[in-house]
Amino acid sequence: MRKAFVLLAVCGLAVLSCLPPGTTNSDGAVSRGVSAPFQWTSSGRLIDVKSDSTHQNASIKDPTVVNSGGNWHIYATIYNKSKSTYNMVYLSFSNWNSANSATQYYMDSNSNLGGYKCAPQVFYASTEGKWFLIYQTQDPAYSTASSIGGPSNWSAPTKFYSSKPSGAPSLWIDFFIISDSSNYYLFCSGDDGKLYRAQTSRSNFPSGFGSFTTVLSMSKNDLFEGACVYKINGQNKYLLLNEAIGSNGRYYKAFTSSSLTGSWSAIAGSESSPFAGRANVSGNFSNDVSHGELLRAGTDEYMTINDGTLQFLYQGSTGSNSSYDLIPWSLGLLTQTGGSSSSSSSSSSSSSSSSSSSSSSSSSSSGGTGSNTIVVRAKGTAGTESVNLKVGSTTVGTWTLSTSMANYTYSTNASSGNITFNFTNDESGRDVQCDYITVNGSTRQAESQATNTASWNGSSCGGAQSEMMYCNGYIDFGTMSGGSSSSSSSSSSSSSSSSSSSSSSGGGSNTIVIRARGTSGQEQIRLVVGSTTVATWTLGTSMANYTASTSASGGCNVEFTNDASGRDVQIDYIQVNGSTRQAESQTTNTGSWNSSTSSCGGVQSEWLYCNGYIGFGNVP
User: Fold this and answer.
1) How would you classify residue 554: left for phi > 0, otherwise alpha for psi between -120 and 50, otherwise beta?
2) Do 330 and 318 contact (CB within 8 A), yes or no?
């Protein structure tokens, strides 16, 4: 019962008055999240089609998007009038303000990927330890690569099927893959008013997809194409989006289910009350909200989104043409506003996960555009914590935090003075955890900063280096260009750590960094890859990096092994060969505390309160 008491003491009674994301307040205002009615504001044309001597392109469309290594990576479809066919394009950037100036790499420049290929989806398959690019050839096919940022390195296409399976539509298009803990699922449209699904086990992927079953069935225009499916972080719920054609343009419907194989219930199923369309988007440059993707909370096959401020990268038409191939599609970004409240400019999109329950209030002195982009990764304990971000004396962003760790982003031209993250409405039950900030893609860890006036130091506020903010106050992250106010933690050394005799960290082709701490300084963790115990450490009470190199491959687990009264472990993240995997975004955590079951495990969290482990996917 010790664990349950700790959670109740931290959360306090304030949680009783918190509305979950997506619910309606007493004044009738609609909050953000996966709940209707939805409201959005749109950017202008964020990414336009470009051409060169061999690519006279009519459009850029069907985007897939992921954030990895501090950069946004987009693969999309282009229609090349020079070759009268569809192919794909790749671009990458760290700041949405620079999206349209990013170099566009035409994927047929890769000798493996010439000819008809379109409607991509990209994700990191943790079961395989590599990136997958899914597309239609017309048949569903995939390429793989060790890095998402190397478009010239994608492998030659491999088809998922040698021949069309039973149950598949005559014209199968727009393939989308998602996984749960047991299986991978392949969804596709048929331009026939139906949505289809096939599956294979996680151990067989990418092979073994079987026959198709019909998931949804409507008239052709009511359930057209462009489906995408997501897991809602921390909930036993999935979100399915599907494009429809209405009398005033294309729009998206939304459905939810408790299982990827279960029945789907419409939560926004009409043109007048859509998930996203002309009826609920302000500032749109197009009548259409067509084929797109939500910005995800991670990179892997689970397709996780946070139930907070959603953002949707979509194609919009900037004109018409009698030939569908020649419609001049461009890409834009929707940002959820919720009711009548206004959001920050969509050019300041969230990073690797969308901002949960965040809003830009009138106290923000910048409209959200500028040359400097700051991302704050944070959460509250009650979901009512108010925070703001300042550069010098200029407040550039104000948010209300959710109880899930999320990214809160603002772009600004302010550059004079120190960057401070401020907690402003402390009371019983309210605390803030700031994981880190990134400044123009460079990470500064909260617990490494010299100034934290909101931490708790024995009997008063301030004076302790910590991620936690228990009082009204701020963490000072240094100047815009001068780096943090205290050097960040070593890339390899660990505070109060020791490698025991069970550690086999002497060398190997894979380098794994674990960022962690204990609450007492006696906690022991071990790194296990496959069946090999790679390293064992005793943690310090300060967040530090613990590093090992190994040639082992397979599932990567970080285990807490000596739980006792007063001992708990916080895993911030791990890095596998430089690629970051956030602890709270992982599906498996057997050492968290689940208050709903009063037992260990089953909650996505940075914390291990019991002997158990967090599973971080595969090491290649």
Assistant:
1) left
2) yes
